[in-house]
# Entry
Amino acid sequence: MSKRSSKQFVVGDAIPNLPWEDRPEGCSEPLWRYSANPIIPRDLIPSSNSIFNSAVVPYKGKFAGVFRCDDRRRHMQLHTGRSEDGVSWQIENEPIKFTCNIPELKEFGYGYDPRVCWIEDRYYVQWCNSYHGPTIGLAWTKDFRTYHQLENAYLPYNRNGVRGHTPFGDIFCSQSPDLTYWGKHRFVMGTRGGWQSTKVGPGPVPIETAQGWLMIYHGVLTSCNGFVYAAGVALLDLDEPWKVVARGGSYIIAPWMQYECVGDVPNVVFPCAALCDAPTGRLAIYYGAADTVVCLAFAYAQELVEFAREHNEM
Ligand code: BMA
# Structure
């Protein structure tokens, strides 16, 4: 039975133990930060220089995830993490070693900015993978122990599903019947004014709602002191997700807190995962701050959709 027939606003499963804090009194923002941010310090594991831009999912009643840990050689690596409550994490000190029977892809160069998505019967991990330039790496796992690497989804100079490791970037949607061959590339959206004027790129795996796909995405502004990474929301058509239904002209989160403004790369918030408890529509959004630590923020899916509509600037 399609989950779409459900009367819930969000299509999906319940996560009864979703990390959550109520909106603080007097706060009218669409998104609010966890009061004990950051949840993961840069040196949680002995080898790490920084841990940020990471992806988590519900796993067997608890949580698991793939973490970006830049090590003290400043090599960008992916590590497995586990958590009972989604807030306190144990991250393996050894990076993930992908099982790969494609000779040309066996040599792992670097991996960063992972996303994790459940499809049918397994978790798919997608990350920025090095292959003669940054491209989109793909693997699946069922247990967060063995990861089976597949063909890269793209030619180099694509990542986050975003065009270009460049001073520019737009969001595209591509389709594949088998996760090897990709096509039907469709432009979704490009830059707009202000906080999203330099480039845009997708954030967490989009959330299916009764009104369309809720996409949280990052946008970049170039200030006189460099890039500023913020995040906003757009609503995409359910059946033709390259069609934008609404797009918020204002951000929902920008680097305001000290831990977002100070770090290896100042002024960065970079969401890579959003857990959603479908019956309540509560969202726990995981984001990297200042390319140094992992943070958590909360929102309601329905309010983010309303925000995109109310602040719509197509
Ligand atoms: C982007 C990515 C992210 C990073 C951001 C800010 O281009 O490389 O990993 O968080 O830059 O440095």
In short: The chain has a mean pLDDT of 94. Residues 53, 112-113, 229, 265, 268, 270, 288, 291 surround beta-D-mannopyranose (CB under 6 Å). The chain has two domains: 43-159, 188-314.
